[in-house]
Design brief:
heterodimer, A: alpha/beta, B: seven-stranded parallel β-sheet, 7 strands
């Protein structure tokens, strides 16, 4: 297959739906072989099949990013199947309901911390030797959120765990720079099942979000967000590292 | 009248030079100071505060234990005669300060640095909320600029600092209506024992000539933020690094 990512292998976590699915599809469309690391085969398998149906190379590997051994196994299976790993995208996240900070319980904290921060740590650790081997083609990308910079009124631990991913990325960018590997964050807003659920719970949210967004619409996970992830994964994005690329149609302008 | 006259303060991390300096500054501004943490290393700072004519106490607590922290705050309030209205959270597990290549970080270390820091910050914030609800107050979270710059071999520490910094913003957003303000103080990396110099993470040297003295240079900013003149400032990160890190 030709394309900017031909010959590259990528893993995308949380690729069964939403932003992860869009990123996986965008990478595959540009020639990458993509492993969709999804917690549930019910979503991961159809997403991989959809990519194959249009001529891309994709495999679903059921993976729980909150388990280090699971992430390591996913990476091993990927390298066994495709011979290398160039691009690791950690997108999977499970956050939970709005609440007051004084009422945050262990379960809510753990859901946020385990998927966002531990997931990032496990993905970085398992991918590290393969990204080093990929050298200047090595890419680590965390999907974070504008809330990781400005905080959130209703989700008091969402901002902190998304911010922690940004600091991990900056530190790893400095540490792995000598290897040629880049480490970045992408902060998107896109139509996803999670956002739909948030809109359903709070109907004025869509109006407020669109009103605050310069381009006046909520992004598409593949065309608007996946395309930017693909750029960062490509040679053209190779001089960008340690950054958070906000891809939200011009809503959060704080960087 | 001193800016914090008659107020009861809690300072964590006063066993380290940075926390000690901030504690002395808060004391000099008129606050009675409760030092919360492992009491052994705190006795010297308590004695220093006493010697300067202030009121001080040290209360033993494991900061990662929320119940322990709440009880310690209540004990400080009892001993010093008023609800805690000023908090400076400067504590950090010394393990976090050890530079180590990322590939050598194991689950145990990540647990201690990331989860431990966040658990302690949550415990301190919630104990502060219990004390300040209905009365108002100020919580200052100390987050060296490494949180924003990142640093090689210190990824878990940077992540934990940035997590704390955003936790402070969450608290600021939710507790403003209760009269509770929450801000962050961002000192230079030289203020913590991580072996990183400002010039390692910035092209520019400190405009004001150095990382500064915790008590004399950083302390007045901590006092200002806690005082009434800063009543409209919340959710902010104030860089007090002598003019190195100028983003934003």
């Amino acid at each position: 297959m030709t394309g900017a990512l031909a010959g590259r292998t990528a893993i995308v976590t949380g690729a069964g739906q939403g932003v992860g699915q869009g990123i996986a599809a965008a990478l595959a469309r540009r020639g990458a072989s993509v492993v969709l690391a999804a917690r549930r085969a019910e979503t991961g398998e159809p997403a991989a099949a959809a990519i194959r149906d249009r001529g891309g190379e994709a495999t679903c590997v059921v993976t729980d990013v909150t388990r280090g051994d699971d992430v390591a196994r996913c990476v091993t299976e990927t390298v066994d199947r495709y011979g290398a790993l160039h691009v690791m995208v950690h997108n999977a996240f499970h956050g939970g309901r709005p609440c007051r900070l004084e009422d945050v319980d262990d379960a809510l904290w753990a859901a946020n911390s385990r998927t966002a921060v531990w997931g990032s740590y496990y993905c970085a650790r398992a991918a590290a030797p393969h990204l080093a081997a990929a050298g200047t083609r090595g890419r680590l990308l965390f999907v974070t959120s504008p809330a990781g910079v400005e905080g959130s009124v209703n989700l008091p631990v969402y901002g902190p765990v998304k911010a922690a991913q940004r600091a991990l990325a900056k530190s790893l960018a400095r540490e792995w720079g000598p290897r040629g590997v880049t480490v970045n964050c992408l902060a998107p807003v896109a139509e996803t099942p999670a956002l739909t659920a948030a809109f359903d719970a709070n109907p004025v949210l869509r109006e407020r979000l669109e009103a605050r967004t310069a381009l006046g619409r909520v992004g598409d996970a593949e065309r608007d967000v996946g395309a930017v992830a693909a750029f960062l994964a490509s040679d053209d994005g190779g001089y960008i590292t340690g950054q958070t690329l906000v891809c939200d149609g011009g809503s959060f302008l704080g960087l | 009248m001193p800016a914090l006259d008659g107020r009861v303060a809690v300072v964590t991390g006063a066993d380290q030079p940075l926390g000690r300096g901030l504690a002395l500054a808060v004391g000099a501004a008129g606050a009675s100071v409760g030092l919360v943490g492992a009491t052994d290393p705190l006795a010297a700072v308590t004695a220093e505060l006493d010697a300067r004519g202030g009121r001080a106490t040290a209360v033993d607590a494991t900061l990662t234990d929320p119940t322990d922290v709440s009880v310690a705050f209540a004990t400080v309030a009892d001993e010093l005669g008023g609800a805690v209205r000023v908090v400076v959270h400067a504590a950090m597990d010394p393990l976090a300060y050890e530079p180590i290549p990322f590939e050598a970080v194991d689950d145990q270390r990540f647990e201690a640095v990331w989860e431990g820091t966040m658990r302690a910050a949550l415990a301190v914030l919630r104990a502060s909320f219990a004390q300040m609800r209905g009365r108002g107050g100020h919580v200052l979270v100390v987050t060296p600029t490494i949180s924003m710059s990142g640093a090689p071999r210190l990824a878990p520490y940077a992540a934990a600092l940035e997590g704390q910094r955003l936790l402070a913003k969450s608290a600021a957003r939710q507790w403003g209506a209760d009269g509770i303000r929450v801000n962050c103080l961002a000192p230079a990396p030289e203020q913590v024992p991580i072996g990183v110099q400002s010039l390692d993470v910035s092209l520019a040297p400190a405009a004001l000539g150095g990382p500064g003295d915790p008590e004399r240079d950083l302390g007045p900013v901590a006092v200002f933020l806690a005082g009434d003149d800063a009543h409209f400032v919340t959710g902010a990160t104030v860089g007090v690094d002598g003019g190195v890190w100028m983003a934003p």
